[in-house]
Amino acid sequence: MMGHTLVLASNNAGKLAELQAMFAPLGVRLIRQAEMGIPEAPEPHRTFIENALAKARHASAASGLPALADDAGLCVEAFGGQPGVDTAYYATRFGYEKSDANNVRALLEQMRGITDRRAAMVSTLVAVRSPDDPEPLVATGRVSGLITEAPLGDNGFGFDPVMWIPAFGQTFAQLPTEVKNAHSHRGRAARAMLELMRERWYPDD
Fold first, then answer.
1. Fewer CB within 10 A of the terminal residue: the chain, N end or C end?
2. What CATH number has the domain spanning 4-201?
3. Required co-factor (predicted)?
4. Average pLDDT value for residue range 75-92
């Protein structure tokens, strides 16, 4: 099997470890952009796909290598799909400092009295061979669930403690890590991306 190196347009070590494990079977090695001295790209857009594409192009242009980028967030039905691309900074809208715990707290406060608790965690992965690639590979993973009334579980990060997954009868934060990764929005997007790469980029491996 040939080896392929891609730049991961993220400096999140947890994300790198998760994706690295998923892409290893394809002989793909992911290098964090920080290791190449590439700064983070601006993310000015309102959609996951536009931000992921901007990040992938930026990393590819700076490195001269193919690049993979991820943009993800929580989309709450009652809020018209928000916070979406602003998920990481959700708490700051309500005067809290940026943190996972404050995000959870702010969300539960905003959802008080709302009966429609439907929400989805969405991950969009974009890969480009070069900054000018006319046909980026795009894969989306989505997990639907319900926002709980209070946090449950100690695993995971972000909104995992309040994201109830009916199929498991638990929140993401109550699931063992390997089960969560196998069924998470990022896991689903990564599997779809692997299939696209096998088919389009590396058919001869």
1. N
2. 3.90.950.10
3. Mg(2+)
4. 96
